[in-house]
Specification:
four-stranded mixed beta sheet, 4 strands, mainly alpha, 247 residues, rod-shaped, single chain, binds zinc ion
């Protein structure tokens, strides 16, 4: 392939812009904010589960408390009925009186035991309520951190987008200067060789694969016409001659 030396040099400008675009794309993909965001979202999901569990516990204890209070009420109602019978003077036999008094005493003990149960449930409910509060306040913290992180990520992405679009514009301008066949070869090699299709020959070294060319390769390049498009024997990339090539 033939191309004017000027166009070959232009290829190096294009390569530099393409490498910049690749670096920007890589930076966008590997923004530390992305990993932070994934970790934070995981934490938020965990917290959501914890909140559901804590709220369920409060609900369960509410029901348990209602049930225990109904038990207390039942026993109290029965003791009240017994007390009324006792006060009514309608029970007269000593044996019945004794049995009624003993039942009242037993109901009172039962009531006080059940009231203990209610108190204990209320304490547990208070603790569970406290856990809900703790999780909710942690959730607010994480929501704030998420908003801050998203803002930081957006800002970083916008900055990258800005640089990318400036670089893309510059690339369009440079690509327009390069003959189609040379550009086509460059694009093909760039695809094939990890984003680098053209490299400068600098002081006898290919800047694409970083290998020093041997004497016979250098002699071959020396002998080539200025408008010959030469390739690196090692990496097959387009080798661009410059005043620093050391030929
Ligand atoms: Zn090479």
């Amino acid at each position: 392939m033939k191309a004017a030396p000027r166009d070959q040099i232009r290829l190096l400008d294009l390569q530099e812009l393409d490498s910049t675009l690749d670096r920007l794309a890589h930076r966008r993909r590997t923004l530390p904010e992305n990993a932070e965001l994934a970790a934070l979202q995981e934490q938020i999901a965990e917290l959501r589960d914890k909140l559901v569990a804590a709220r369920t516990e409060v609900g369960d204890l509410d029901r348990e408390q209602t049930k225990a209070e109904q038990d207390v009420e039942q026993v109290r109602a029965r003791a009240d009925r017994d007390a009324k019978r006792l006060d009514s003077g309608m029970v007269t036999s000593a044996k019945d009186l004794a049995s009624l008094q003993s039942e009242i005493a037993s109901l009172q003990r039962r009531q006080s035991d059940l009231e203990e149960v209610v108190l204990e449930i209320m304490e547990r409910r208070e603790e569970a309520e406290g856990r809900v509060g703790t999780v909710e306040s942690r959730q607010r913290e994480l929501d704030a951190a998420l908003a801050e992180l998203n803002e930081r990520k957006d800002k970083a992405e916008q900055e990258i987008s800005g640089q990318s679009s400036l670089t893309s514009d510059a690339r369009k301008g440079v690509a327009a200067d390069i003959p189609a066949d040379l550009l086509g070869l460059y694009e093909k090699l760039r695809d094939q060789f990890g984003g680098v299709g053209a490299a400068a020959l600098t002081r006898g070294q290919c800047q694409g694969c970083r290998l020093a060319l041997n004497t016979s390769d250098l002699n071959r390049i020396r002998a080539a016409a200025a408008d010959d498009v030469v390739r690196c024997e090692e990496c097959r990339r387009i080798l661009v001659r410059t005043p620093e090539s050391g030929l």
